Amino acid sequence: MSELKHTESGIYYLYDYIPKSYFEYHTEKEIKVTEKTWDYKDGKEPAVFDFTYELMAAISEMSKNISDTKIALLAVPPSKVGKISTIGTSIQIISEWYKTKITSELFMCNKEIINCGCLLTRSSDISTAHLSRRPDYAENKNAIEFNKSVLPEDGVSFFILDDITTKGTSMDVCQDILVEHGVQKGKIYRLAIAKTILEINR
């Protein structure tokens, strides 16, 4: 597993995501990781398995400092209504790993894992940065629906998962929605596969 990094706002991530315009300033190895995230977003193997494995390894490592015995996994909703994100697929895979004791025997994670992939869903489409423009906080929040019936009982820590985070707006929105519905902020963790590099040192 890649070494866990984190932003100043506390978002954990595994890799740097390099915009194509920055490729010339990075190594072939770094570029290959970025290209692999494209395969992941497209639902292609082995990227889906490899990054799901790394997400679970990171969750296990982070969970060592969590006193709760249960972990709820939820995804940042995709930009389009009804679309199934690859992060949602990863959550489903990890849930199956938990049922077959892979999370405890292979990843040494002694927490109960709860699939909350549908806790937050997209209620209306939003724009995407690579097609038009990046949605702001309010637009993002107004387009997410909270499914109260899926919210687990007390004694649970929540992991908000995403594939690529840039400024962290979507993850901030998801965290704030959970807090508004009674989840303690200290019980919420944000984890992404990669974080976009916003500038290059030349």
What does this structure look like?
With about 200 residues, the protein is α/β, with parallel strands linked by helices. The chain has one domain: Rossmann fold. Helix content is about 35%, strand content about 20%. Helix 2 crosses helix 3. The longest helix is centred in the first third of the chain and has 17 residues, at about 45-65.
Integer average pLDDT: 93
Low-confidence stretches: none
Question: How are the strands of the largest sheet arranged?
Answer: 1-2-8-7-3-4
> Which band does the percent of strand residues land in?
15-25%
What coarse outline follows from CA principal-axis ratios?
globular
For this structure, what is the CATH class?
A: Alpha Beta
Number of DSSP-assigned strands: 8
- Kindly state the percentage of residues in helix: 25-40%
SS-based class: alpha/beta
DSSP helix count?
6
